[in-house]
Write a sequence for this structure.
């Protein structure tokens, strides 16, 4: 944990402790030292694995898909460029929540197959994110100087090896901060999948609020859950950046 | 390939960038082992010409044969030629994310299908040849310009090409580093390698070249051995050019 992160957490804890004493808060609902609070906390945390699994799966797919969309967008063929551009513009225009609803309720009507909430969520999130990842990859690849391609071609590398060993390793270093941003964004957007009943963090919180009537404390707890998750992700991305930066120019 | 066949052949080659005609019917023959220097004012088409030899630039009309391969616009013929003609660039174009050794090993492993130990052996051999064996594990940014350009030369040599193309290899270097690169090139010239070099280093041309070609406005205006080229240039354009670059 970095020093800035630790500072942020301490500040938050102090703020909560101060307001928590004022009486209008009912922290007992999520106080793990009491039996009831303990059960509630466990219930809330049980959504964690789904949030992580859903986001991680969606992001992994969208990064690969983004690259697969970006590459034809950079090709010499006008048709391929057009197809890539159209995909990006179309997918990017749909709000994630709408995409979630469309995939879960709409898509089965076309395909005749019902999809579980998990995969509906993964498909919607990955689809939406892939358009943004494609734009990030495109920018990253375009930022690599032409001379790098020429040098690679001059030692007889084919297009695939040129991309794999020369262009992409450099492009990925440059776009890592943008990808990190996108991962954080997706992690937050995974909360939208709660609307179709996916048992992730937000859904669990919603359900507990209905039985406990303490939205302030429960949603604050939810905020903290996302905060911790995201601080961990940013620390991971920064670590990766540092590790990779050591060997570029 | 027959012995008397030129290793590089241009037959009436034309090339335009939009409305601008850069190559206006270039014809030339270069024999195996020959060392040719191409010079001329900027915009004369000399870079385009040398880049056509290994297919980095396409051409519109005419015919190019390199090392027995008819060079077209297809990937197969271009890759076949690139395996036989190495290229050294003005801006070095080393791969910044790879160490010097990895820069040298990439071609042998990926394009020549060699295993790592064999590729490393060949990389170290050519790194010694350009006299910087001790820099193997450094990254390009840690080297001086002259050292980077020598790594780039070694990288091309690791493909063991019969032809080496140099596109203004010393133009981006600080003056004190030009000689170390030219020395490596002169040494290479002594090994029987076919060399085509676009350069304004006339001292190098005089010392190393078998022939000097002078280009202007997309044409080869004059071709001559160095002594005749410098002492008795035939065309007026060539005389003007020499006056400008020799008297500065």
């Amino acid at each position: 944990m970095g020093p800035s992160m630790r500072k942020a957490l301490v500040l938050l804890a102090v703020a909560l402790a101060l307001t928590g004493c004022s009486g209008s808060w009912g922290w007992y609902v999520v106080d793990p030292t009491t039996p009831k609070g303990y059960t509630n906390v466990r219930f809330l945390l049980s959504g964690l694995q789904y949030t992580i699994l859903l986001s991680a799966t969606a992001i992994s797919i969208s990064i690969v898909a983004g690259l697969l969309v970006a590459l034809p967008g950079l090709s010499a063929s006008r048709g391929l460029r057009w197809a890539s551009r159209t995909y990006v513009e179309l997918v990017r225009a749909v709000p994630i929540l709408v995409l979630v609803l469309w995939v879960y309720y709409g898509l089965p009507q076309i395909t005749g197959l019902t999809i579980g909430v998990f995969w509906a969520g993964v498909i919607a999130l990955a689809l939406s994110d892939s358009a943004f990842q494609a734009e990030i990859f495109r920018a990253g690849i375009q930022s690599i100087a032409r001379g790098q391609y020429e040098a690679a071609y001059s030692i007889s590398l084919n297009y695939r090896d040129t991309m794999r060993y020369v262009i992409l390793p450099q492009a990925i270093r440059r776009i890592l901060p943008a990808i990190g941003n996108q991962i954080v964004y997706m992690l937050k957007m995974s909360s939208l999948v709660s609307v179709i009943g996916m048992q992730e963090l937000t859904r669990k919180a919603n359900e507990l609020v209905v039985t406990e009537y303490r939205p302030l404390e429960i949603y604050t707890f939810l905020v903290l859950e996302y905060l911790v998750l995201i601080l961990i992700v940013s620390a991971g991305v920064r670590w990766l950046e540092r590790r990779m930066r050591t060997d570029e120019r | 390939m027959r012995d008397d066949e030129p290793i590089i052949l241009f037959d009436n080659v034309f090339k335009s960038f939009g409305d601008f005609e850069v190559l206006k019917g270039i014809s030339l023959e270069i024999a195996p082992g020959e060392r040719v220097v191409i010079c001329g004012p900027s915009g004369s088409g000399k870079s385009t010409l040398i880049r056509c030899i290994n297919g980095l630039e396409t051409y519109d009309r005419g015919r190019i044969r390199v090392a027995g391969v008819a060079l077209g616009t297809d990937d197969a013929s271009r890759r076949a030629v690139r395996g036989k003609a190495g290229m050294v660039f003005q801006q070095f174009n080393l791969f910044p994310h790879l160490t010097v050794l990895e820069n040298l090993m990439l071609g042998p492993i990926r394009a020549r299908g060699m295993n790592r130990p064999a590729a490393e052996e060949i990389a170290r051999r050519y790194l010694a040849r350009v006299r910087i064996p001790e820099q193997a594990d450094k990254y390009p940014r840690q080297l001086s310009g002259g050292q980077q350009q020598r790594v780039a030369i070694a990288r091309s040599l690791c493909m063991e090409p019969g032809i080496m193309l140099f596109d203004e290899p010393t133009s981006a270097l600080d003056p004190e580093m030009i000689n170390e690169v030219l020395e490596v090139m002169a040494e290479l010239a002594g090994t029987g390698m076919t060399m085509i070099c676009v350069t304004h280093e006339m001292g190098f041309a005089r010392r190393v070249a078998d022939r000097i070609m002078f280009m202007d406005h997309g044409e080869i205006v004059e071709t001559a051995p160095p002594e005749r080229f410098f002492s008795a240039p035939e065309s007026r354009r060539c005389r003007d050019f020499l006056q400008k670059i020799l008297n500065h």
Remarks:
- Residues 175-189 of chain B form the longest helix (15 residues).
- The longest strand of chain B covers residues 20-30.
- Residues 139 and 146 of chain B are 14 Å apart (CA to CA).
- Chain B touches chain A at residues 54-56, 75, 78-79, 82-83, 86-87, 89, 91, 93-97, 99, 106-107, 110-112, 139-141, 152, 155-156, 158-159 (CB under 8 Å).
